[in-house]
Amino acid sequence: MRCEWVGFTAICLATACAKSAPPAAPLVRLPQGAYRGRPADQGVVAFLGIRYARPPVGRLRWREAAPLEASDRVIEADAFGPTCRQPMDPNEAASATRQDEDCLSLNVWTRRTSGSPRPVLLWIHGGANVSGGTADPLYDGHHFVRDNDVVLVSINYRLGPFGFLDLDDVGGPEYRRSRNLGLLDQLAALRWVRTNIAAFGGDSSNITLFGESAGGSAIMRLMAMPSARGLFDKAIIQSGGPANIRVKGYPRKDDIPTGRALTRAFMVEARVSDMAGLTTLPADSVLAAAGRVARSRGDVMGVSTWGARIDNDVLPEDIFGDVRRGANPGVKVLIGTNEDEMLYFRRYDTDFERNLMREYHDKGAAMGRDFTRVREIADRYTAGSVDPMRYVDFAGEFWIRQPSILLAEAQARHNDVFMYLFTWDSALPGMGAAHAIELPFVFGHLEGKDVEQLTGPRPPAALSRRIQAAWTAFATTGNPTAPGEPAWPRYTGDARATMLLTDGAWTVVSDPKADARRLLRRMYDVGQ
Prior knowledge:
Blueprint lengths: L2 E4 L2 E4 L14 E4 L2 E4 L8 E7 L22 E3 L28 E6 L7 E7 L17 H6 L3 E5 L4 H4 L4 H4 L9 H16 L5 E11 L1 H11 L9 E5 L7 E2 L8 H15 L4 H6 L2 H14 L22 H6 L7 E7 L13 H12 L1 E2 L2 E2 L4 H8 L5 H25 L4 E6 L16 H5 L5 H7 L5 H17 L19 E5 L5 E4 L3 H7 L3 E2 L3
Parallel strand pairs: 4-6, 8-9, 8-10, 10-11, 11-13, 13-16, 16-17
Antiparallel strand pairs: 1-2, 3-4, 5-7, 7-9, 12-19, 14-15, 17-18
């Protein structure tokens, strides 16, 4: 049947005009099955909820991710997989999505599955190792891939007690690595991508990890892990935390005794005595017991209770020192922080600044991290100020900016490193250039309630395009200099060139806040 259109009227040469067939859903065949993605939308094809490992449930709970079995099934990859189990958090959109222990999945956005291979960007989400997930609308890769010729991947990994509970003493050698399952999940996903991404149009020899907050810290750890060497080519680290950095004056030993003590406390709270009880414990009971353990330590959110632990197996003792000594010399790095990192936590505590100042004076701590043995250095920075913002600034430097500089210095001995400082201020009063505020610009999501709670209304779209261009240039060439932007010099221990990212002219400054760097670096114990 053939139809011709005249104006707005269809003149058909048969009894009826056939409807146009919908675009065919693409199919990618892998040894694990044939995956049918969503039909192309604005030129972007999405494959969502692809398992990269077997479900970590039942007897596989608290064990390393197990490889998928071969299959010839056709699998619908048109919806995000479940978010890994976590407490509800009004500031973490993923926590409000469907949750399940069976959560080891990833997502792929691509323009085409054939032709010349494109650079791959693999996203590791933040959330302090206790929350977050790829179903967060902020991390949807559609806009990024629509506007940039790359393949984008995002991954889920186990969180909180499911990803970081040390069961070596309880379950024996087969549970030896349970203390760092979240990191091992990331490794398993990275291996899956290295092996399979070519089928989606990606270049398996050009993989860039990028992540923010706990995701950035994860990349710092991966840079030092022997098992990760050679699995990725570049890294973009956005506001990565301290990543198990050592503070001077505290014993340089592994975290295993602490982890085992937490496990004993967890088992008491959960009222179980062996692995049989642990593997059959309902997931809700796991979360509840873990929450009680964290609160008993004054850790309401659980962020300092459940996380990666140095064990000299998965995670080496001296992460920053190992990077300095060349743990992963082939990786080029783009790293940076935001100017007002800690103002993000006003979202949880409206009196955050004053409470942080009280914690400093009363406990010798900053957001739960004890630094009493380096108090003299910290006191020189705060200078007895009665301005709460001075302590917010100190916490941001201590937790995020100075560790990022130390990582940059370490890797710059071996490969190209580029540094940025994000300085655009939110339109919301009191937020400034807070932690995570760059995320809407990186992913190109500039509308919606979740975005406006970070940026305020109508964030500048031009800034998003420019940041995406820089990230894409780095993933493509290893240099973030984008067309129309000033040349982005390498970061070295001499010049310390840092690009200021804002809505306006980008400029390079040398060693911003140099006095803070010289003073506060003395607080850390990192290898030479």
